[in-house]
Amino acid sequence: MDWEPLIAAATAARAKAYAPYSRFAVGAAVLMEDGSIHAGANVENCIPSLAVCAERNALAAAVSTGLRRPQALAVVTEMSPPARPCGLCRQTLAEFAQDLPILVTNPGGEREETSLAELLPYPFSLTGPFSAKG
Ligand code: THU
Asked: What is this structure's pTM?
C-alpha cells in the first residue's frame, strides 16, 4: 500500500480545516474503488455539536460522486501519538466498508497503521448477526 498520495491529500486538506473553536485541525483522505482520492477537513460551528470531522467530510465527498467502496483512509493531526478516528467516524465508515486499512499520522512523521475492524470490531448493523433483522 502506497500511503504517500493519501497522506499528501490529507495534509493539504488539513491546511483548510475550519477549527476556530478547538484549534485542532484534522485532514483526511480516502482512496476509493476507482483509484480516486477524496479529501476533507474538519468544519466546526458555533454550536459545538454541529462540528463535522475530517473523516466524515472526506467520505461524504467520495460518496457524493457516486463511489461507495473505500479502500484506504489516511488521517493527519498534530497529535503525538497520532489521533485515531472518533467513534462517530468509525461507525460512518462501517456503513461503506467491512474493513478498511487506516493510517494515522502527524507532521512529525509518526505513523500508526490500523484498520476499521480493529478500531470498531462490533459496528451497529441493521443486517448484522445481533440486529433485529438478523
Ligand atoms: N475531529 C476530527 O476531525 N476527526 C476525529 O476523528 C476527531 C476529532 C475534529 C472535530 C473537531 O473539529 C476537532 O477535531 C476537535 O474535536
From this structure: 0.95
